[in-house]
Write a structure and sequence with these properties.
The complex is a heterodimer of chains A (107) and B (368). Chain A has one helix and eight strands; from the N terminus they run αββββββββ. Chain A is mainly beta. In chain A, β1 and β2 form a beta hairpin. Chain B has two domains: 135 residues, Thiolase/Chalcone synthase (Peroxisomal Thiolase, Chain A, domain 1); 217 residues, 3-Layer(aba) Sandwich (Peroxisomal Thiolase, Chain A, domain 1), CATH 3.40.47.10. Classes of the chains: A mainly beta (107), B alpha/beta (368). The interface between A and B is medium-sized, with 23 and 27 residues.
Amino acid sequence: MNKFETELKAGNFITSECIHCNKIIWPPSDYCDNCFGKVIWRKVSPNGKLIEWSKKDNDILCIAEFENSIRVIGKLDSKNVMPKPGQLIKFVKSTFNDKPGFFFVQD
Amino acid sequence: MKKVAVVGYGNTKFSKNELSIESLLLESTKQVFDTTKNLSQDLIDGVIVSTNDNSKYLGAILSELSGIKPKISHTVEHLCSSGSSAVISGFSYIASGLANTVLVTGADKIGNPGQILEWDKSRGEYNHPIYWASMFTKAHKRQFDTTDEELAIVSAKNHKQAIDNPNAYSHKPYTISEIMNSENITDDLRILDCSYLCSGSSSILLTSEENAKKFTDEPIWITGIGQKTNSASFTKNELTTSSSTVTAANNAYKMAKINPQEIDTAEIHDAFSVCELMAVEDLSLTEKNTGASYIRNLFNTENRKINPRGGLIGAGHPLGATGISQIVEVTQQLQNMAKKRQIPNVKKGLVHNMSAASTSSTVLILES
């Protein structure tokens, strides 16, 4: 597993960032996609926005956006309220078992 | 830059059969030799394979199995648009003078690994294409008030058109009601709104202008090529338009010096119903927010202009073969050889092939 996956497994949702270009590098990478300098790694802010959603069986899945640039698909606990694009959501948990798992709640 | 023509082709039936990738590749290649006049192995100096299969060195293997000793031979993988990408490679070798005549063969097996892009961690646990298709569909419904019936019409049309394609995976017609009531994969996607993975192989033979008439009386010219890759990760996409398709189409029209209204038929990458509604708009075949009414009108008037062979939904989607099979169809339409599928007076055709939720798109223009 790479650093991103190892941290996801530990419950930490992290991203790479280039300090020189002041730019989040997403998807995560060892080098900046602009200047090819070394990145730093840091936690992603848990406060995000719902972009779109659908439902599979009893699970609500959604595209969530964090820090205006990082988008991932994860499972949303909607607390039985119909989700709406643009609404605020919060990252609460990540897993990694062969593939990543992202978990959100309505804020 | 030399002119490049399609002068031969072959197509296997798309099926659930578990054939080896090598057998599939050879099957459509054999058809090229069986049906192209004056073709012998020594005249082919390029062999390009497109596939998502994990087998190695398939360009050389197909060359050996076919008795060809080409100057150039390799494999191209670009997920669902591997086929059209391989054709661009073949075109480029001929246009530049590096090769004279190139065989491009694509194939995949039913269980091929190309539908999951494991690298894309932003998809989380939802890495199957049905999830991005669900998001596209939900967003399209939200933005354009698209109905389940309008989505089902795409599938009904393409299944109906596939009945006249002897190589199609599906020969079963479905009513709009049957499609709307088919199994829910997610809340936004029904099983009959999805294309089928299957086994299949397609080949084309490309050559330069000076050789074209040796192989066929009706060469079909590749006059426009556009390709655009925006990203690999799905989540950088817009959800109701494919900007990679828009850019690829504009570049292809520009190269061919034509406008979208001149297109007589188009093979479009309908991996899911919503993709066809998006594509006819992104290719400028109809205006924005008129995709659903445009397709409904074609369906009601039995006009086969879009996806005459049945598209991916009706014909099936053996990834590495799909782009090449689309080119075979447009070639047959331009040669007036499409039999029951023939659209009258086709002079200009378009192929649209894309990958990984339209993160990358290819558009080709073909003319008689």
